[in-house]
Amino acid sequence: MAAKAIKPTKKFNSNTFLFMITILLFVVMYVAGMIVFKDQGFAKPQMFLNLFISNAGLIVIGCGMTLVMITGGIDISVGSVTALVCMVSAYTMENKGMNPYMALIFSLGIGLLFGLLQGYLVAYLEIQPFIVTLAGLFLGRGLTAVVSVDMISIKNELFNKWATYKINMPFGTTSRRGKFIPAYIYPSVIIAILVVIIIAIMLKYSKFGRKLYAIGGNEQSAMMMGLNVKKTKFEAYILDGFLAGLGGFLFCLNSCAGFVEQAKGLEMDAISAAVIGGTLLSGGVGTVVGTLFGVLIKGTITSLITTQGTLSSWWVRIVLSALLCFFIVLQAIFASMKKKGKKISKKEGGGSPGEKTAAAG
After folding, report:
1. Distance between start and end Cα atoms, the chain
2. Phi (first) and psi of residue 173, to 5 degrees
3. Between residues 304 and 350, the one the model is more confident about
4. What's the angle, vertex CA 333, arms to CA 329 and CA 335, rounded to 5?
5. Which residues partner with 167 through β-bridges?
6. pLDDT of residue 3 exceeding 80
7. What is the gyration radius of the CA atoms in the chain, in angstroms?
8. What pLDDT is recorded for position 228?
9. What is the pLDDT of residues 261-308, one digit of tens each?
10. What is the rounded distance in angstroms from the CA atom of residue 64 to the CA atom of residue 66?
11. 163 Cβ contact list (under 8 Å, min separation 6)
């Protein structure tokens, strides 16, 4: 009976507790911003929706990052893939007269190619994910410079309509003259939220999702269960690449330009969002909903520092790195508690047959 009572507590401590801390941290930070910067409009609904508008691409890319991190892998090439997608989209639309539909297909194709190449090297050749994706980072950034070293602004009429099309919300603010001003979002936000919902459902209810968690939890056990570990890892990286291509295109909709230094450090933002959202670096645990809140925390930090006005933008990186270290330490503490719990349970369940008989008597 005692063992049964301990199990839910362990599950709560290891998985749910980090997620709850993430949500609480976001709420506290945002409420604090609403109180301190009320006069600057931080409490307005549009300010909250701007977190999604500015980070729609990162939300999608973070979902892909979460998938590979659940398997125990990582992908540090997503920032370069995003830059390449933006540059190719800008170049083809402005210099080759390509329509935005084809640019979107090109973007998804670039992401898939990176996913296929890197997934094959990681899954089937068993090369360390960090090394493989580091090479992908340099490749993507180099190809971006090959396309063009100059900044290309996108002036395509249809693309700009996509980028600026406002979807009004039933809520908003009232001006001094009493006029109602509705809050709004862009189509990129809807796409990002749909991706989060789809991936969350896939991870929780599909066989593929359960395979990812099993492989990240213990790869050897997954193999003994009859799971095709290499194929599953390969598929995870393909999906990650696809989401990097889609997220890159959403990022492009936000910037409406392509240049070599674009999205530099985006891979670290995606990893930070996943870790802050409760995804373990060792694999086996993670949710895209947690990653979404991780992205919102990053966006809130950026908004707070921008609204404050006197601090350097580098403080965003400083605060984010401090939070990342905090959550990594928490992960290490929970991992240590799990190991101790397993050792105690083994000792309690062990013993000679004679000792068990005596205890029963």
Report:
1. 18
2. -125, 165
3. 304
4. 115
5. 185
6. no
7. 23
8. 95
9. 999 999 999 999 999 998 988 888 899 999 999 999 999 999 999 888
10. 5
11. 186, 188, 253, 254, 256
Tell me: pLDDT of 2 over 50: no
Q: Which residue has the tokens 């999906």?
A: 239
Please identify which residue in the block is written with the tokens 């006029």: 179
pLDDT in tens, 30-46: 999 999 988 888 889 99
Q: Which residue has the tokens 């979460």?
A: 66
Cβ contacts of 347 within 8 Å, gap of 6 or more: none
Query: Do 254 and 53 touch, CB atoms closer than 8 A?
Result: yes
Which spans in the chain are helix H?
2-11, 17-36, 45-70, 78-95, 100-123, 129-147, 157-164, 187-205, 207-217, 219-224, 229-255, 266-276, 288-308, 314-349, 353-360
Rounded to two decimals, the pTM is: 0.90
What amino acid occupies position 132? V
In whole angstroms, what is the distance from residue 202 CA to residue 290 CA?
15
Q: Pairing between strand 257-258 and 180-185? A: unpaired
Task: Determine the Cα–Cα distance for residues 10 and 42; give it in Å rounded to an integer.
Answer: 38
Structure tokens at 186: 């862009």
**CA separation for the pair 360, 356 (Å, rounded):** 6
CA dist list (Å): 86 to 15, 107, 117, 221, 223: 36, 8, 20, 41, 39
Residues 6+ apart with CB under 8 A from 315: 305
Euclidean distance between CA atoms 165 and 71, whole angstroms: 37
Buried b (16+ CB within 10 A) or exposed e, 316-332: beebbeebbeebeeebe
Q: What is the pLDDT of residue 313?
A: 78
Predicted confidence at residue 41, as pLDDT, reads 82
Mean pLDDT of the region 317-331: 87
